[in-house]
């Protein structure tokens, strides 16, 4: 297939720099989600859609590969009656940044985007494409000669967008609805683990609160309660007492705080150890690992207080040694790929394994699967990636990963997430943020990725979401990356925000604790 630079018709606010870059934007309410979304919460809409332009029959003769990226992350606040949808994501900003740097990628667009993506020059915002309308997406792809679609959000994946694109003959990076059930239903994931011998914590699934509580009483605490479906990263409760576990069960099964995502719960044994994130690209039969990363889920220093969507991360993660990464590939990733193929739903896209390195055995156990890149791990991975992301994604969609390897910059990268005060609960909105340009200039290799940002009527940058900024830095080692990231954080003037001060402590606890002394 020959790829050529597509001469685009005039489009508003198109950013050019010897290439095109841009963003589609579409915001939506959970009530508008299609009825095909059966495995996840109708109020959990998190994601990305990226497209690459392939104009194999173009009358123009340039030979560069043109990439079109549409990306959407939504931080979701859910209750029984509906959702508060907040558009734009830091993970998606990082993907736009990486795609724009891809030598074979000439155009990047993102939806819904945010103020930071639109002003960074990493992409151009286009507000009028509904990514939950498959026919609209397909029509757009055909009109613009799109040659690769990268579907990142789990909600449209579970609802079947990738299925529809593939049926329309459009190369797609992202799993089918059937394969996306690995993320859309934790019970499905656990069933696959049990059937194909993939190490995971002991569990039982319940839809009846009384039965769940009886099982919890028999097992004792600590214990883990999980909503079965998509709950925007908030559907996990680690209960240290029986009372906390009973309360978590009632909140999901009786009160319905996660809507349809919590109609079933998984009650899982508590595994003591260290968490790590493992990413692999999968083309249906073959898988290649990305670099290792480790995320900080808890909102408070020292891993205290509630879980969040992620308060920071770093790469590489010392806990995932090369030997342990081989174990993860052989015991978790490859059996999953083979198992999904045997089940008749081959997985294509990025497989994100949440791991717990068991303190007793030193071996990894699978805690969850996501079928997208992680936020905030994506930020540190994308600033370290040296390979052409667009080409690798296309090879994945074509089933051509065999023999492909990825190149990474040496050293380390770290991201510190700045969130609105009150997050992950009710948080302040529309607070003014200043000094971001100064923050990016405090040291080389510092990049501020935006999540929930916008401009107010006076032109001020404001925070509109829970997690708002991801201050990311590269260094020769983790210590240098951390020092740069926190130096940039301290330059930002945002009274309405907060951040953890101990990101990276697992890798070098003595240094980190001395910093906070």
UniProtKB/TrEMBL annotation:
What is the protein's given name? phosphoribosylamine--glycine ligase
Q: What class of enzyme is it?
A: ligase
Catalytic activity field: 5-phospho-beta-D-ribosylamine + glycine + ATP = N(1)-(5-phospho-beta-D-ribosyl)glycinamide + ADP + phosphate + H(+)
Membership in a protein family: Belongs to the GARS family.
According to its UniProt entry, this protein's organism is Gossypium raimondii
Sorted alphabetically, which InterPro entries does this protein's record hold?
A: ATP-grasp (IPR011761), ATP_grasp_subdomain_1 (IPR013815), PreATP-grasp_dom_sf (IPR016185), PRibGlycinamid_synth_ATP-grasp (IPR020561), PRibGlycinamide_synth (IPR000115), PRibGlycinamide_synth_C-dom (IPR020560), PRibGlycinamide_synth_C_sf (IPR037123), PRibGlycinamide_synth_N (IPR020562)
Single annotated GO MF: metal ion binding
Pathway listed for it is: Purine metabolism; IMP biosynthesis via de novo pathway; N(1)-(5-phospho-D-ribosyl)glycinamide from 5-phospho-alpha-D-ribose 1-diphosphate: step 2/2
Q: What is its EC number?
A: 6.3.4.13
Residues annotated as domain ATP-grasp: 190-398
> Could you mention a single GO BP entry for this protein?
'de novo' IMP biosynthetic process
Concerning SMART domains, the annotation shows:
GARS_A, GARS_C
> Which superkingdom?
Eukaryota
Under Pfam families, the record lists: GARS_A, GARS_C, GARS_N
> Coiled-coil intervals in this record?
none
Signal peptide as annotated in the record: none
Q: Which UniProt keywords apply?
A: ATP-binding, Ligase, Nucleotide-binding, Purine biosynthesis
PROSITE patterns found in the cross-reference section: ATP_GRASP
């Amino acid at each position: 297939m020959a790829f050529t630079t597509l001469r685009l018709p005039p489009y508003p606010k198109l950013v050019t720099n010897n290439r095109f870059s841009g963003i589609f934007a579409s915001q939506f309410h959970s009530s508008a989600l299609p009825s095909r979304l059966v495995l996840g919460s109708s109020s959990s809409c998190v994601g990305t859609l990226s497209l690459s332009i392939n104009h194999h029959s173009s009358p123009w003769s340039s030979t560069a590969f043109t990439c079109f990226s549409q990306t959407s992350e939504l931080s979701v606040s859910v209750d029984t009656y509906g959702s508060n949808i907040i558009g734009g994501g830091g993970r998606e900003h990082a993907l736009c940044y990486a795609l724009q740097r891809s030598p074979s990628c000439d155009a990047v667009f993102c939806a819904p985007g945010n103020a930071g993506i639109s002003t960074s020059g990493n992409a151009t915002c286009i507000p009028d494409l509904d990514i939950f309308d498959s026919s609209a997406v397909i029509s757009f792809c055909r009109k613009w000669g799109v040659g690769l679609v990268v579907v990142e959000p789990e909600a449209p994946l579970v609802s079947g967008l990738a299925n529809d694109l593939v049926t329309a003959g459009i190369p797609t990076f992202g799993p089918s609805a059937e394969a996306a059930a690995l993320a859309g239903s934790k019970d499905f994931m656990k069933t696959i683990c049990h059937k194909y011998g993939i190490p995971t914590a002991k569990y039982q699934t319940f839809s009846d609160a009384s039965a769940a509580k009886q099982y919890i009483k028999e097992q004792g605490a600590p214990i883990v309660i999980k909503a079965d479906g998509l709950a925007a990263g908030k559907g996990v409760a680690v209960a240290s007492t029986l009372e906390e576990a009973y309360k978590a069960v009632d909140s999901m099964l009786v009160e319905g705080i996660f809507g349809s995502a919590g109609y079933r719960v998984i009650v899982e044994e508590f595994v003591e150890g260290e968490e790590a994130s493992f990413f692999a690209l999968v083309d249906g039969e073959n898988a290649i690992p990305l670099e290792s990363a480790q995320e900080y889920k808890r909102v408070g220093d020292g891993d205290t207080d509630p879980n969040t969507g992620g308060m920071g991360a770093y790469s590489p993660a010392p806990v995932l040694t090369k030997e342990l990464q081989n174990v993860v590939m052989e015991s978790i990733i490859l059996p999953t790929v083979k198992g999904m193929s045997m089940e008749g739903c081959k997985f294509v896209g990025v497989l994100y394994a949440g791991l717990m390195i068991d303190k007793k055995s030193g071996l990894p156990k699978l805690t969850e699967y996501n079928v997208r890149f992680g936020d905030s791990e994506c930020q540190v991975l994308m600033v370290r990636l040296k390979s052409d992301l667009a080409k690798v994604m296309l090879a994945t969609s074509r089933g051509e990963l065999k023999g492909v390897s990825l190149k990474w910059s040496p050293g380390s990268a770290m991201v510190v997430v700045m969130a609105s005060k009150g997050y992950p609960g009710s948080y302040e909105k529309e607070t003014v943020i200043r000094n971001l340009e100064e923050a990016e200039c405090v040291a080389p290799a510092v990049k501020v990725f935006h999540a929930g940002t916008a401009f107010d009527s006076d032109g001020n940058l404001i925070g509109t979401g829970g997690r708002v900024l991801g201050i990311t830095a590269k260094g020769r080692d983790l210590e240098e990356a951390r020092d740069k990231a926190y130096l940039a954080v301290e330059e930002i003037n945002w009274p309405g925000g907060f951040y953890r001060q101990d990101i990276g402590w697992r890798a070098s606890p003595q240094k980190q604790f001395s910093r906070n002394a």
